[in-house]
């Protein structure tokens, strides 16, 4: 089975712009979660989508949004970028049936905001 | 507020020795705890999960303990190999259908040949 894929892998944007990141989960997985990883804060949960609906949400401002399509692929959007949004954005997929099930992470998208 | 602490300094050990990594937490009562491995430029890879009512879990050369009284988990790699060199992350989760895991910053492990 192919693993979780994320595109693009690297991105450079300037303050005030917006960005859309994409995540393709493992075939058969219906849950996709997004995380932000920075050296100082570590991994922080953004949100989880299951069957095209947001099921859980972290403590991030409304500038961070996401969606999931019927094929379980997910996109994350950040509007009005700030310097502090520079981070590695990771998505993880799972079957979505039990909260303790294994999550499989993609390689991440590294975003640099100038 | 909820806090997770892992060894902040990198751990350097000799090949063949046992590596022990620590995960301490405060202001939280997790239903389960997970350990992940992360290599540079890659996403975390799941290693082990231990539930609040379990004291110890093993998988090949890996062993995890969970002490809810001390609010601590220990992660052991026995007979360590240079290929075990990576950053190891612990993550805590609640009961219920909630994937809002709380993560430690990770401990960097270097196994020297």
Would you give an account of this structure?
Chain A is an all-beta fold and 114 residues long. Chain A is 0% helix and 53% strand. In chain A, strands 2, 4, 5, 6, 9, 10 and 11 form a seven-stranded mixed sheet that branches. In chain A, strands 1-3-8-7 form a four-stranded antiparallel sheet, with no helix packed on it. The model of chain A has no long low-confidence stretch (mean pLDDT 94). Chain B has no helices and eleven strands. Chain B is mainly β. In chain B, strand 6 and strand 7 form a beta hairpin. The model of chain B has no long low-confidence stretch (mean pLDDT 92). Chain B has strands spanning 3-6, 11-14, 19-26, 32-38, 45-51, 56-59, 62-67, 72-77, 86-93, 102-103, 107-112. The chains are: A mainly beta (114), B mainly beta (113). The A-B interface holds A 4, 31, 33, 39, 42-45, 48, 55-56, 58, 90, 92, 94, 98-100, 102-108 and B 31-32, 41-46, 49, 51, 89, 91, 93-106.
List the helices and strands and how they pair.
The complex is a heterodimer of chains A (114) and B (113).
Chain A: E1 5-7, E2 10-13, E3 19-24, E4 31-38, E5 42-50, E6 53-57, E7 64-68, E8 74-78, E9 87-94, E10 104-105, E11 109-113
Parallel strand pairs in A: 2-11
Antiparallel strand pairs in A: 1-3, 3-8, 4-5, 4-9, 5-6, 7-8, 9-10, 9-11
Chain B: E1 3-6, E2 11-14, E3 19-26, E4 32-38, E5 45-51, E6 56-59, E7 62-67, E8 72-77, E9 86-93, E10 102-103, E11 107-112
Parallel strand pairs in B: 2-11
Antiparallel strand pairs in B: 1-3, 3-8, 4-5, 4-9, 6-7, 7-8, 9-10, 9-11
